Amino acid sequence: MRVRLGELSERLAGELVGDAELTITRIGPLEAADGQTLSFLANPHYKAQLATSGAGCVIVGPAMRDAAVARGATIVCTDPYLAFARLTQWWAAQTRAPAERGVHPAAVVEAGAVIDSTASVGALAFVGRGARIGPGAVIGPHSHVGAGAWVGEGTVLKPRVVVGEDCRIGRRGIIHSGAVIGADGFGFAPSEGRWEKIEQLGAVAIGDDVEIGANTCIDRGALQDTVLEDGVKLDNLVQIAHNVHVGAHCAFAGCAGVAGSSRIGRHCTFGGGAMILGHLEIVDHVHITAATVISRSIHKPGQYSGSFPFDDNASWEKNAATLRQLHALRDRLRALERKI
Q1: Domain 3-95 CATH (choose: 3.40.50.2000, 3.40.1390.10, 2.40.50.140, 3.20.20.70)
Q2: Tag placement on the chain: N or C end, fewer CB within 10 Å?
Q3: Mean pLDDT across 186-202
Q4: Sequence ranges of the domains in the chain
């Protein structure tokens, strides 16, 4: 891959300061860049690396313009991190070989399945009866698409993904290896010291532009579908239980979990290891920090933290600071009691 710096700046709609004919062969971090590397700086915390970087060119925001230009070639973008993200998408599209169209001879496709002629079904994959695979979709090797399931246009299932029967995935999704969509929800009725299974009769409905990380599990609903709306992003090892409804453009970091029948609004974020208990409601624009346990519904947008119990972030930080002084406060109280 060799591309002119002028072409890249035009593609990013940025201001180029430097030689438009400079050839770029890779994208890389500031500290490991050479003269043919395009790097970026979005976080001021790494400004010290800018002066010593050997990068051929650096993407920066307006606030870093002068410092970057003093170092060398620069592309100035309003949002350098967004520009970097879009550049990586374009770069990957140019350098990665597309999947071969058609059904691999070693795949198994049951009667009644409908596979678009532009789709790709890899070796040892399985597509069940009545399943539908949309245009340009990719079903990776060893993946399983159950009976009646739908995989939308342009959606990619990496190797070893399971999509259960009747589950539906929208367009342009990415499902990473080991993910299981449509396993049974955790439903059991107690009976004389034993557990009686509740059959899970719903499915999973996933919108467009959703990305699901490796080994993440989304359980099918008991009586109605588990739903992920458009643009949801799930990291690795996330658990979404049965009957959960996740609003559009939410993001969950690794090992977060949502218990059954909770409803989450749009544009919410959940840090790694955050836990949402069942049957709760969370409104739009709520942000939960890492390892926080949410034990009651949240009806006000904002940032929330803690597990003893959780609270709005500002109050939680004040209480946490006080908690660290508790031992000293106890000693002072005992001294006062002895004087009295």
Answers
A1: 3.40.1390.10
A2: C
A3: 97
A4: 3-95, 104-317
Token look-up 């770029």 returns 24
**In the structure encoding, which two tokens stand for residue 45, read together?**
């915390």
Cα(103)–Cα(106) distance, integer angstroms: 8
What does the alpha-carbon distance between residue 295 and residue 132 come to, in Å, rounded to a whole number? 39
pLDDT score at 193: 97
- Exposed, middle or buried by CB within 10 Å (0-12, 13-18, 19+), for 165? middle
Cα separation, 285 vs 89, whole angstroms: 27
CATH class of 104-317: mainly beta
The answer to whether domain 3-95 and domain 104-317 are alike in fold is no
Q: Report pLDDT for 309.
A: 74
Q: Which residues are catalytic?
A: 242
Q: What is the pLDDT of residues 195-236, one digit of tens each?
A: 999 999 999 999 999 999 999 999 999 999 999 999 999 999
Report pLDDT digits (tens) over 89-143.
999 999 999 999 999 999 999 999 999 999 999 999 999 999 999 999 999 999 9
Compute the average pLDDT of residues 77-81: 97
For residue 149, CA distances in Å to 60, 130, 182, 213 come to: 44, 7, 10, 20
| Cβ 178 vs Cβ 159: under 8 Å | no
